Amino acid sequence: MTEKQEKILNAALELFAEEGYGSTSTSKIAKKAGVSEGLIFRHFTNKEGLLEAISKEGESRLKVLFANIVMESDPQEVINKTFRIASEIAMDSEQSHFWKLQYKLKWETELYDEKKMEPIRNALTTAFEKLGYQNPEQEADILLLLLDGLATRYFLSDNFDMENMIEFLLIKYQE
Amino acid sequence: MTEKQEKILNAALELFAEEGYGSTSTSKIAKKAGVSEGLIFRHFTNKEGLLEAISKEGESRLKVLFANIVMESDPQEVINKTFRIASEIAMDSEQSHFWKLQYKLKWETELYDEKKMEPIRNALTTAFEKLGYQNPEQEADILLLLLDGLATRYFLSDNFDMENMIEFLLIKYQE
Amino acid sequence: MTEKQEKILNAALELFAEEGYGSTSTSKIAKKAGVSEGLIFRHFTNKEGLLEAISKEGESRLKVLFANIVMESDPQEVINKTFRIASEIAMDSEQSHFWKLQYKLKWETELYDEKKMEPIRNALTTAFEKLGYQNPEQEADILLLLLDGLATRYFLSDNFDMENMIEFLLIKYQE
Amino acid sequence: MTEKQEKILNAALELFAEEGYGSTSTSKIAKKAGVSEGLIFRHFTNKEGLLEAISKEGESRLKVLFANIVMESDPQEVINKTFRIASEIAMDSEQSHFWKLQYKLKWETELYDEKKMEPIRNALTTAFEKLGYQNPEQEADILLLLLDGLATRYFLSDNFDMENMIEFLLIKYQE
DNA sequence: AATGAATGAGCCTTCATTCAT
DNA sequence: AATGAATGAAGGCTCATTCAT
């Protein structure tokens, strides 16, 4: 990956996350990346190709993030780590961009890729099982619901106190 | 409101909800409504005017929906009704469109209008208080988070069993 | 001519004069006249029809204006009166509108109707002849040129002192 | 300036001059220039940008034209040259287009830029002074009036004998 | 690899005009 | 006579994409 390719990718990520995929023009991306518009197409074929490249890069990020949870054997820790992921993302501005984009895209393209979440869902199910919850599967689902809710609020609400809320949830899930 | 005006509004609602505001062209709306494109502008001035008209109509809907909850005096029933709203919306396809649009718009425009939710947040807080929860405010927030999560999953996930999940949540929130 | 017809005509005159024929929309005229847009077409068939109606009304005005000059027997007075016309028009705001429109239209439609000016040209030619000028025809032409120049400056230049200039011309043409 | 850019500029100049700025569509310009419509905007941003580009080019032309007059020391020659400019413009069809546009624009935008004429007005004033005229300033103004009149007639009247008229004026201004 | 010129389709909007009432 | 709904064509402009260099 050349330097210019990365510049394009970064510009695209930021713009897509900020203004949405559909509302970001390739010319704006080129300008922000300091690159000729044609070059985008030379390297990524398509506007869609650009998106795919970003997504691909993101998927590996996801895997790293999830691996940490899935590997965990202590059930309580599985839950804790899941919440802490959200917290960590919120802190890192670059990661924040990336995840905001993920959510924006979900709504723009109406693709909620369940498969991606399957590993954590399973990890959480087993965790709740081990902890003796009655309906571990549904409990896992609820926790995932909370995660989506947190993302919605964090990215769209101006004055949402993420840290505090996660703190509270962490306690609530402790017996 | 003439017949054609309503046709336009309905077509717009559906298309905005399905493809997003920015990605829906006025010509597509006109075609779907069986109307000349110019008529849209005669009646609604703008593409944005169209959106406002839809939103205005929606806000009154919101009020009706919320009034039912806010009036409720039985705290447990406040919580139950809040969940059931989600369930009801999911059943009514026309309402469904409208609410999907609301969420899409949130992400497209990055405006999460907190004020709109304030009445229920308050109602929920009082309800949790009466029921003797330790942190009623945060409990209300969590329930709202769950609602956002439910919306995200319901509108974006192909095979999400809303009914079932709400059933489960209803029980979980019963003591 | 009904009241509404006149309102339309007046609104059109003013708008055409101020913003030009092409740049004035029939809807703007209707709004200014306090009348439905359809009525314009009921009465004047066309946007062009509107213009014709205005022009026709103007032609009679022209005739009245010119009659005064053509009838004059004293040659010096013919010249004086010609200049004073310009002065008078400049004073009367309604007439001013009308004549501004005439000039605007000349440039917009590229029609400089020579025939309309023929009577004064003749009157001026005879006047210069009687006064013993060598080339009465060309002198008449020059005076007309000055009139066009005056109109150009008066209507387009912010700080043009029409009165003063005419005063000076009047003296210059006195022997 | 690429070849196509110039083609666009020329097409625009001619069409603006012939049909007016407001009445000339960018698509017509593109067609006449043998170019895609989008290219106009790539190079000139705006329809207005096109006009500015033309005007800018014209202003330098103006300077060259005026320099010749302003530099002249012989007062009589200053006057002669001023008239001859008009004559020359009338002969050169490309220049003719440009000046016609200038006048059309004056009437379309109602902007009579006095500053542009200031240099010649001054040159003429000094010339009339040197020649012993009583009111040199007003004499200069009158000559400018005649120029505006000439332009009006030349561009709008079908059968106006410019050459002849200028010949006559030249003699009239000779003592 | 990289640029910048060039394109064609589509977008939102305006406008003159027609029609039913 | 008068209105207001409705239309279809055109207008300025943006955008993703291609191509020659």
Automatic annotation (TrEMBL), chains A, B, C, D:
Superkingdom of origin organism: Bacteria
PANTHER family named among the record's database cross-references: ACREF/ENVCD OPERON REPRESSOR-RELATED, ACREF_ENVCD OPERON REPRESSOR-RELATED
Keyword flag Lipid biosynthesis: no
Gene Ontology molecular-function annotations: DNA binding
Pfam family membership, one: TetR_N
Keyword list, A-Z: DNA-binding
Gene3D superfamilies assigned to the protein according to its UniProt record, in alphabetical order: Tetracycline Repressor, domain 2
Taxonomic lineage: Bacteria, Pseudomonadati, Bacteroidota, Cytophagia, Cytophagales
InterPro entries hit by this protein: DNA-bd_HTH_TetR-type_CS (IPR023772), Homeodomain-like_sf (IPR009057), HTH-type_Tx_Regulator (IPR050624), HTH_TetR (IPR001647)
The HTH tetR-type domain, residue ranges: 2-62
DNA-binding region(s) in UniProt: 25-44
Originating organism: Fulvivirga lutea
Protein name: Helix-turn-helix transcriptional regulator
